[in-house]
Amino acid sequence: MGRGATVTLLTGNTAEALSARYAEGLAGARVVNVYDWMSAPVLAKASART
Asked: Does 39 reside within a domain?
C-alpha cells in the first residue's frame, strides 16, 4: 500500500478499523469503507468508484 493506491475495507465501526483508515491515509492511499449491512446497489456503486 502506498501513495495513490485504493484500499477497500470491509469492517464494522471498531477501533481497529479507525486505525487502519488512519494508517492508509498517512501512507497516501485512498480508503473506501464498505459495511456488511450495505445493500447490493450501494456496494456496486462504492466498488465502481475504486
From this structure: yes
